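Recap for those who missed Tuesday's class. We walked through two folding examples back to back. For each one, the amino acid string is listed first and its predicted structure tokens come directly after. Nothing is annotated here on purpose, so try labeling regions yourself before you check the end of the notes.
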Amino acid sequence: MLSRATTVVVALLAVGLGIATPAEAAPKITSVASRSESVSTGTWAATASLTSMTFTANSNQLSTITNTGTIALSAVTYKITVSNPTSGTPTFTLFTCAVAWVSGKCSGGAGTQIGGTFAKNSTTTVTSTQVPPLSGAVYLQVEPASVTTSVTVTLGTSITSPTQLRASIKTNQ
């Protein structure tokens, strides 16, 4: 009679070779979580390719947010500051997309709006759960309305640990 370990090895080899094995010889894999794990070292970061945008007309502008850290994210906070132009009452909206914008469209749609409308002479903080994957990016589009004179929008990113870090994967090792 073969030992259980030998049976498992034979069954795995048979599967690898494409040989059918009886059901009782198939390995049974079970696992039990023995403890929680947490991140002890690592970095979290989401950086914007463009942080300051000057608008003189109602033309959209883009920024790419890249996850330059080593820890996956579950949310990113954006701080949007709109300057106080000499005249007019411009407003801005912010949209995110998982792929690069093409002709003002996100995969044929409008993208996902983050927050509401941002007015002149304001600073607003909003959170988005559409995040860049590790070494990947999400794409932002700032859309102006009623721009009649030069106005600047400043975009900052931040991550609040641990609430905006992806939950760690639990393993039994």
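Example two. Treat it independently of the first, because the proteins are unrelated.
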Amino acid sequence: MPRHPDELPAAAFSGDVTLFEHYLHDIGQDYLLLGQSGEQRAQLRFCGTFLGGPVVWNCEFITLAAVQADRQQGRTAVTPAPSNFIEIGEPGPQGVPLRVGLAVARIDQPAIQKMIIMIRNYKRLRRGRHEFGQPQVALSHEG
């Protein structure tokens, strides 16, 4: 259940993997859900490996339907139909920024868990944007 950031201790936002892992262990969770916008977007944090070392992922998880809606509403540049993607930014004090867009109908607990497993199992992650799969042209918020 998402909680207001002011209710969370500093360890919840730490980029220190050991400190954040201890926090997750203390709350009995594998990841921390910071917020969710309907069933189309979620902000979460979890641990993983990147470039051979442990990291805290600071993740925005978004459906491709939401990406398409942003484009149609002029919030982002108009480009070809979206494909599944992973975007990895530069590490900062709260961890490594990660944005994942997938062709899922909704973001719920099973989708979050599958996305985390995908990121943890992907061996060739590198900084930048990586697209995969077929572009999704007929996306809907319904599922």
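Answers for example two:
The longest helix spans residues 109-121.
Confidence is low (pLDDT under 50) at residues 138-143.
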